[in-house]
Amino acid sequence: MKALVFYAPGNCKIEDVQSPTPDNGEILVKVNYAGVCGTDVRIYKGTKKIKAPRIIGHEFAGEIIEIGKGVNEYKAGERVTVYPVLFCGECYACRAGRKNICLNRITLGYELDGGFAEFLKIPRKAVEDGNVVRLPDNISYEEGAISEMVAAAYNGILKANVKEGQSIVIIGAGPIGLCHVILSRLRRPKKIIVSEPDKDKRGLALKLGADYIIDPKEISVKEEILARTNNEGADIVFIDVGLKDVIENAFSLLKKGGTYILFAGCPEGTKITLDPNMIHYREILFTGSSASTPECQKEILNLVSSKKIDIKPLITDILPLAEWQMAFESKGNYKALKLILQIT
Ligand SMILES: [Zn+2]
Ligand SMILES: [Zn+2]
User: 311 near 304, Cβ under 8 Å?
Assistant: First the structure.
């Protein structure tokens, strides 16, 4: 089969490799589409370290074509996506229901082979833990392939506990920022304000449910947000871009008692400076958000299937696997929004 194999930073190759066969309890999936994530680009650039050689890609959807002995819950022909994180179920994070931050997590596409390949074997543990999620009939493979990313954004919405009537600020209208727009909108906030330097992404943010958009190159984000919130500041700020200055400045956009959600990987070694009094006296809740759970992913698929949300506009480019390099480059330059590779 054809697969995109990572060997070392700057060195990935499409190769013919042996197709996997499913052992007891395992499932073989034929991958139709796989999403390109910022993390794939970080692996390629060497800022996220994984062991090589490895077939990367952790956002994908396809069809079950073979099942190993002892698998009763699934059958060949079913259309599925797979929550890529295998969690241990025993550490304190798992016991607290926070599988996404499992201490012993291993992930398809990082520690195990992933979805940039024609076929992918899903390990028994993932099958038993319900990581294999069926796609409702009215959901395309393309939508299925990006549902993991949307679910990750949804985890942030749950953490922020977005409520009716609140003022929401979203900094950065990349795929995750736009998911935060779509998913916040469901909870009837008073207003959603999005700051984003790229004109096209601002336009899409408006289309997907933002009330106001700001070009941070043109005007002061802080002044504009204060003006739009009665001089109070926002109830919730989502930081969806990993830039040090942006992360530091966003504390001043919140009202007292506000919630700050940081959803942005930064280059290793990044340090921020902040005034602790800003957190203490203003009782700011400051938390991170990363990845999600199979339950979140099922919930997203239900929301798409019942037409409560539309995630198709997030997909801006579909390229054949052979053009992975171009895909990685435009993802790395923040030009494309959600880019998916057609595998088979
Ligand atoms: Zn991802
Ligand atoms: Zn665990």
Answer: yes
pTM: 0.95
Domain that holds residue 257: 153-288
CA 293 – ligand 2 centroid, Å: 12
| 58 alpha carbon – ligand 1 mean position (Å) | 6
Count of domains in the chain? 2
For residue 86, the CA-to-ligand 2 centroid distance in Å is: 9
Residues, CB-to-ion distance under 5 Å, ligand 1: 37
223-234 tens-digit pLDDT:
999 999 999 999
227 and 129 within one domain: no
Regarding whether 255 and 213 lie in a shared domain, the answer is: yes
CA 153–ligand 1 middle distance (angstroms): 10
Nearest C-alpha neighbor of 64 from the set 54, 81, 76? 76
For 98, the 3-state DSSP assignment is coil
* Same-domain check for residues 123 and 90: yes
pLDDT at residue 106 tops 80: yes
pLDDT(333) > 90: no
Quickly tell me which residue has 């549902």 as its tokens.
147
